[in-house]
Amino acid sequence: MASALRFNCQSFNFSSRQNPAPARVDRFQILCSNLPHSAGAEDSQCIKEENEARLVLLEKYGNGTSKRYILESDFKIRTILEDGLPQTNVLEDSHAVETDTSLSWLPKIIKDFVLPAGFPDSVSDDYLEYILLQFPTNVTGWICHTLVTSSLLKAVGVGSFSGTTAAASAAAIRWVAKDGIGALGRLFIGGRFGNLFDDDPKQWRLYADFIGSAGSIFDLSTQLYPAYFLPLASLGNLAKAVGRGLRDPSFRVIQNHFAISGNLGEVSAKEEVWEVAAELVGLALGILALDTPGFSSSYPTLIFTWLGVRLLHLWFRYLSLSVLRFNTINLKRARILVNSHILQQKVPGISDCNKMENILVWEKFLRPKITFGVPLEELIAGKKPGFLMRILLKLYAEEKYFLVVSQARTEFEVFVSFKEGATSLSVLRSVWQSYWLHQNWSKSNDVFSQLEQSLIELNDRFDDFLLQLQSTGWETNQIYLKVPKEISIQEPPHTA
User: Fold this and answer.
1) Root UVB sensitive protein C-terminal domain location, by residue (predicted)?
2) Do residues 457 and 436 lie in contact, with contact meaning Cβ atoms separated by under 8 Å?
3) Residue 484 DSSP one-character state
4) C-alpha torsion 267→268→272→275, nearest 10
5) Whole-model pTM?
6) How many Å is the Cα radius of gyration of the chain?
7) Are 314 and 213 in contact (CB under 8 A)?
């Protein structure tokens, strides 16, 4: 089923929205028409040929829907919303057709949750078989863990006062239930945020400790409210499990960074030696503190001691992560490198750039603000959407993205939409252009002349930027700047 959407804009402005689905914007007048399945073949063919003749762009969404933008005049663009991509399309080529048939029966939302992005091309051929066999392996392991927990609790005296083993079993159920609720946190983190850790492992490793510290507060509260042991302990385990879900993948990325000789197994084993040695020392000091007269019986003393040690722990964690020197380029480091190149015509070295990288700050708080993956209708909102589209098509004919500067806000903000075939290098080029515009932007000048000038500067200076990156040791073949997959724009051949 296809719906025709017609919009007329009242003013030239841009606005940002995070929802990647085809959105109906309030400032547009919408007229919908449906194409019935029973329509005659001849009429349908005429409509199809008419649409294709005036088709300008096709915007595809991650949920399988698409939107055709049909340029009718400078003042009017007609769009057609489609539930799914057609079998044949004048814009498609052989590379756009999905060739993956494995697990085709599995809903896309579940595949995205349980499998790596880009599966199966992003992993080795034996990945799926290994994972499917690991699942029952882990199930049987946790069954054994549940049964053993009951024996351990009984051995330390749980249930001995009642003279039966029922109390030990009940305690084991509560204890394992607490672990199960906590495991939900790891499930959610791994499924929903698995694509974050390669980009910024230092940040997420530090956040893991912050969240784990919050979980410990719930555990400490069980002594004050023993009747609420299960909910408090479960919340504590949930928070700590979320922290662990952030910690383990981030730590693996950091270990891989250390293993420059391909010796990841040895690096991991030696890290275990250091960790176990620290664990033994920490346990010994903790037992010594608990054995101190009056310490364990004084709850305030316990709390303040924990707080002081925990703050010291977080400080050491921050220092340890700050000394890491990654030679790969993520978005934070890309911003630092680009800004330096535009202002000083040179890029900082690996050590200096990593020192300048703020591992605490969220990307959305960095300036200038750059919003990636913006729907096309956000870029052409204005009195003459058709005219704006023609200008953007001409300006960005040689680029794999469209970029505009928001005119609706006082704060400088850039919106970027990516075309099909965009790569990490395309994202890096858009960042360079955004920073040049931020440094040279003037509201009094013509918007599109400034965009044109920024593209001239980009073409003149970007190659020098890449050469400087290579000469200072940056790994330009590993640029962790991901192209948003929620929205992609496909151009017809004649617009190139």
Assistant:
1) 347-483
2) yes
3) P
4) 80
5) 0.70
6) 28
7) yes
